[in-house]
Amino acid sequence: MKLINALLNILWLILCGFWMALGYVIAGIICCILIITIPFGIAAFRIAGYVIWPFGRTTVERPGAGAPSFIGNVIWVIFAGWWLALEHLITSLALFATIIGIPFAWANLKMIPISLMPLGREIVSTDRRFGAP
Question: How far is it, in rounded angstroms, from Cα 47 to Cα 133?
Fold first, then answer.
């Protein structure tokens, strides 16, 4: 399974992962300019790491993330989330145009919710999510 995930991640990186992660890194740099938006920048960098190498990992809701995460997500959607979600949508439309890109297009569409609401979520191994040691 790890070999398949590695192969999928390499194809993902070539087809769209690098460009998608670059969008998150740019958002993170912009957010780190002001002190008050540094938590958004950290979230953007965290998601960039996920977007560049997603197979074998997933996101889950972080226990205890309440109202501050919700308020932060509303601010995030207004300033950065909508254009990152649009980037995922445009990339998946381009990937749907090729046969090899169709599974990656679906994976890209599945990343839209995390691009819109990154706060209050954490990235975990798919093994950990399903209870494996």
Answer: 24
Identify the DSSP state of 53.
S
Domain residue extents for the chain: 2-128
Q: How far apart are CA 48 and CA 42, in angstroms?
A: 10
Coil vs helix vs strand at 7: helix
Instruction: Classify 119 as helix, strand or coil.
Output: coil
Per-residue confidence (pLDDT) for residue 131, from 0 to 100:
54
Stated as kind and residue range, the H or E segment containing 61 is strand 57-61
Condensed to tens digits (0 to 9), the pLDDT of residues 9-48 reads 999 999 888 999 999 999 999 999 988 889 899 999 999 9
